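Bug #77: duplicate submission created two jobs. Keeping one. Sequence:
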Amino acid sequence: TNAKRVTKKVLPDYFQDIVDGKKNFELRLNDFDISEGDMLVLEEYTSADPATRESTGRSLEKGVKGVHAFKVQDLWWSEEDIKRHGLQIISFD
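Kept job's structure:
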C-alpha cells in the first residue's frame, strides 16, 4: 500500500473535541496531498499564530476514510451567499 502519514497542527478546542469523539472531520485548505487510507497525525498547538504558538506535546492519529475537495466557484451557492452565511461541514454516523 502507498499509504502515507500527514501531520497537521490543530488548536486545543478542536483537538479535545476529536479526543472526546465529538468531532470526526477536518476542514482544511486543499494545499497538500492526502487520500483515503492515509494516516492523519494531529498535533495540538496553543495558537494559530506562528509567532506565539507552541506544541502542547499531545498528538493523535486518525485513519483517513475519505477526502472531499472542492473549490468555492464550483459550489452550488453564490460567493456572496457563502461570504454572508459561511459553510458548514456536517458529519453523521
